[in-house]
Amino acid sequence: MYPFDYVRASSVEDAVSAAQTTAGSRFLAGGMTVLPMLKQRLANPTQLIDLGHLAGLRFIRADIDGIHIGAMTTHAAVAGSGLVREAIPALARLVDGIGDPQVRHRGTLGGALATNDSAGDYVAAALALAATIVTDRRRIAADDFFRGMGETALAADELITEVVFPIPRRAGYAKFEQLASRYALVAVMAAETTVAGPRVAVIGAASCAFRLPALETALSRRWHAAAADSLAIDPDGLTSDLCGSAAYRADLVGVLARRAIADAG
Amino acid sequence: MSTATPITRVSITMIVNDQPVTAEVDPRTLLVDFLRETLQLTGTHVGCDTSQCGACVVHVDGLSVKSCSMLAVQADGSRIVTIEGLAQAEDLHPVQQAFYTQHALQCGYCTPGMVMSAVDLIAHNPQPTDREIRAWLKGNLCRCTGYHNIVSAIAAAARAAHAPASANP
Questions:
Q1: CATH 1.10.150.120 spans which residues of chain B?
Q2: Are A119 and A187 within 8 A, CB to CB?
Q3: Contact B120/A76, CB-based, under 8 Å?
Q4: Within this chain, do residues A146 and A184 fall inside the same structural domain, yes or no?
Q5: A21 interface with B at CB cutoff 8 Å
Q6: If you write DSSP's letter for every residue of A156-218 in order, what string do you get?
Q7: What's the pLDDT tens digit per position in B70-116?
Q8: Radius of gyration (Cα) for chain A, nearest Å?
Q9: Cα dihedral B134, B139, B145, B151 sign
Q10: Which of A165, A193, A228 is the last residue of a domain?
Q11: Number of structural domains, chain A?
């Protein structure tokens, strides 16, 4: 790791102010993405702003517009939450499959969305469930949040404080794990939302998550798994690597979309 | 970086295996390096250094974490338990004893992390099924045993911990 200075934020305002004062600062949530990046010298922040003591960002509560989850809530807390399991069981299952138990003890919702990993499970959930990402200064729809590989709509000094997941009529998740890393080679979340209709989100297949509008239209006529059978995914632009060709991933998208819809019931 | 302002060292205090510890560290010091090099607690191993293998698992405030993927400064104010903190005097911890009895190790490199993971599992799920044990060990790699005896040892330790209660209704 390159050397960096370290400050511990005592409030959201404090964290944002520290980022504004020192150019090249970076927020540190659970560190499950940032620390491995720093170790590989893929980032060189002047200062890490530790959010670990912002206890006010660790909560899960139900409100009229859905389940609100604080940005610093760990994956283990979400996966184990009775409230989440009851309201959006597919979300609880999805989060329970992130990383491994030790990663879930440290990794956070805010960190997972802010890093926008192309195979990030939470990214699929935010997109498919039409989540709203709340920051220290505004509310951002998931559709406007993920901008490309590792890129988001967040400004450098902008901090996610909570995420609102509207409760869907139904939702399902299907993930094909890369056999060594257990990351999603491809995964699909399908949800029938109350406000935005059917939404299907894909991760792992390309450099950034994306939705399947044609399938969503078909599902709006009737919710059935076979709707995915006629899905034609163009491999052009999909990821091709050691673990699978673009054509293979295109095929997986259809298979997993079918399974996700079936999983939703 | 040579012309940059010198990095400020950070003072940290934590309880490690019931002993209070205070030190000044470079912010980039990993918890595992602090444990091994500053405190000389070398039972915690560094395997992959990329949070894949789990050889470095310790408990921070009662939860198993990978100490290679946490900064020492992030553990400031925490209670840490390492593999050295499990045994009481001459008596192995029941999970350590079960690993010994069930031949759950060959080279032993992954063992400290395996044991710390298993202790956390049993603390939160006293009677795990074999399936739950295997799912829990997703973040602990063993390149020798094929896992079979590790799973048996953890199941045996859980049964042993449960036995006194069920034997005396």
A1: 94-163
A2: yes
A3: no
A4: no
A5: no
A6: TT--EEEEEEPPPSEEEEEEEE-TTT-SEEEEEEEEEETTTEEEEEEESSSSS-EE-HHHHHH
A7: 999 999 999 999 999 999 888 999 999 999 999 999 999 999 999 99
A8: 18
A9: negative
A10: A165
A11: 3
> Is A192 found in the same domain as A251?
yes
Q: Which residues of B touch A5 (CB under 8 A)?
A: 5, 7-8, 27
Which amino acid is present at B85? Answer: G
Give the domain B10-85 fold. Ubiquitin-like (UB roll) (3.10.20)
Q: Which of B34, B31, B26 is nearest to B8 (CA)?
A: B26
Where a domain ends, among A13, A28, A50?
A: A50
**Closest residue to B50, CB basis, from A6, A28, A36:** A36
Q: Are B79 and A12 in contact (CB under 8 A)?
A: no
ipTM of the complex: 0.93
Q: How far is CA B99 from the centre of its chain?
A: 14
Hey, which bits of A84-136 come out as E strands?
Answer: 132-135
Half-sphere exposure for A211 (CA within 13 Å, toward CB): 22
Domain with CATH 3.10.20.30 in chain B: 10-85
**Interchain contact A76–B (C-beta under 8 A):** yes
Provide the domain limits for residue A193: 170-264
Going residue by residue through chain A, which has 265 residues, state the pLDDT in tens, using 9 for 90 and above: 999 999 999 999 999 999 999 999 999 999 999 999 999 999 999 999 999 999 999 999 999 999 999 999 999 999 999 999 999 999 999 999 999 999 999 999 999 999 999 999 999 999 999 999 999 999 999 999 999 999 999 999 999 999 999 999 999 999 999 988 889 999 999 999 999 999 999 999 999 999 999 999 999 999 999 999 989 899 999 999 999 999 999 999 999 999 999 999 8
Rounded Cα distance between A172 and A174, Å, is 7
User: Which of A3, A28, A52 is nearest residue B1 as measured by Cβ atoms?
Assistant: A3
Q: Domain B94-163: give its CATH code.
A: 1.10.150.120
- What CATH number is attached to the domain comprising A86? 3.30.465.10
pLDDT digits (tens, 9 = 90+) for B138-150: 999 999 999 999 9
Instruction: Kindly report the number of other CB atoms within 10 A of residue A87's CB atom.
Output: 18
Distant-in-sequence, close-in-space partners of A78: CB < 8 Å, separation ≥ 6: A60, A69, A84, A91, A92, A95, A109
